């Protein structure tokens, strides 16, 4: 009788805390498998877009062999000399943005006339779209300084940016100058 009273008391307490359907969930099996797998796997699988973008490029003064995803926000950049470097997902994202900007600016330099203006306009739309509506020039400037500091720390030459006054956004200098000369935007001139 005493055991039944305890069971009834526990069930009523669980009823207050949450639904009783949750008791049917097979937590024991799933929980144990998850814990075992999590303890074994520190590095899981390749981060395909980062690996594809960085493979063969020089970062931190070494040639990249691959990039793999670690636990949480950690990413491992593996080099051809057998070493690896741990970075956060945000730093890797900034590195990929820098690599992408360099690649697109190289293509941009080869273009002429309307196609050059079209690519510059596309860059302007991209930079405006990813900017928060609450972003001030000061906040954007801080973001840019951080990004460029990370690029330098990784051995990359940061893409030069300028402030586009008429659009209230920072964007790569090459694009902004083409748009400014076409009369589409107004960049801030240094005095």
Question: Could you explain how this protein is built, in words?
Answer:
The protein is built from seven helices and six strands. It has helices at residues 2-17, 27-40, 48-54, 89-110, 113-129, 137-153, 173-181, and strands at residues 58-59, 62-69, 74-79, 84-88, 161-164, 169-172. A four-stranded antiparallel beta sheet has the order 1-2-3-4. Strands 5-6 form a two-stranded antiparallel sheet. Helix 5 (113-129) crosses helix 7 (173-181).
Supply database-style keywords.
4-stranded antiparallel β-sheet, 7 helices, globular, alpha+beta, about 55% helix, two-stranded antiparallel ribbon, about 190 residues, single chain
Q: End-to-end distance, in Å?
A: 90 Å
Give the number of helices.
7
Class of secondary structure makeup: alpha+beta
Based on Cα principal axes, name the global outline: globular
Instruction: Indicate the low-confidence ranges by residue numbers.
Output: 16-44
User: Which H/E pattern describes the elements?
Assistant: HHHEEEEHHHEEH
What about the largest sheet? 4 strands, antiparallel
Short account of what is shown:
It contains seven helices and six strands. It has 191 residues and is α+β, with helices and mostly antiparallel strands.
Strand and helix map with partners:
Layout: H1 2-17, H2 27-40, H3 48-54, E1 58-59, E2 62-69, E3 74-79, E4 84-88, H4 89-110, H5 113-129, H6 137-153, E5 161-164, E6 169-172, H7 173-181
Antiparallel strand pairs: 1-2, 2-3, 3-4, 5-6
Helix pairs in contact: 5-7
